[in-house]
Amino acid sequence: MIGKLSTGCMGLDSLLQGGIECGEITLIYGESATGKTTACIQAAASIATVGLKVLFIDSDNSFTQQRFHQIAGETSDLLSELILLFFPETFDEQRILVESLNNYVTPQLGLIVIDSMSTLYRAAFSKAESVFDLNRDLTRQLAYLANLTRSKGVACIITSQVHARLNSVGDQVEPVARRAVTHFSSTIIRIMNNPNPKLREFALERLKGVDAKDARCLLTLHERGFVELA
Prior knowledge:
The protein is α/β, with parallel strands linked by helices. It has one domain: 3-Layer(aba) Sandwich (Rossmann fold), CATH 3.40.50.
């Protein structure tokens, strides 16, 4: 796989200067209900439309057939055959899945999605006997993903929940396990709510490893996914 793949939204593709980059990890983060899962499902459907397979790890229990059918439309049954879903229930199960992804790689694979990278990590955090071991496992998963996407030339999207930054005010939030998820992500997008409940603001913070200051776009959150403003 070489180049970029469409997200299924022209406005977002334009912000990304052509779409999702193959061979790297793209991080999408934002507060609850901002549309992270919608963006992932829309990208998965778009990539399946061109005949490529998608591996979708749903650690957040957010992927629903109803939402997929809304986004994919009349072709949903056909496209669903190209999307392989996984539903880990623990952080250990997520680790095992991530480290076995190579078994599912074929020349037809276009995209790997993990939605969300941080949900099961966060759930395990309160029960962990060793935070060091937990963080090591997360870093190992991300390193494995980075190596797999780079070596196989496939695109990868991970999402993350957020928490407030220490000593911050207002809406200053950052991804959970920020240091790890941002270190391995070449492209970073934050989705933010808007006073208009139908709109979302996409802020491109990094593109191919380079800071992207003031690169933003407003998109409408529609039942068919994200669309450009009318």
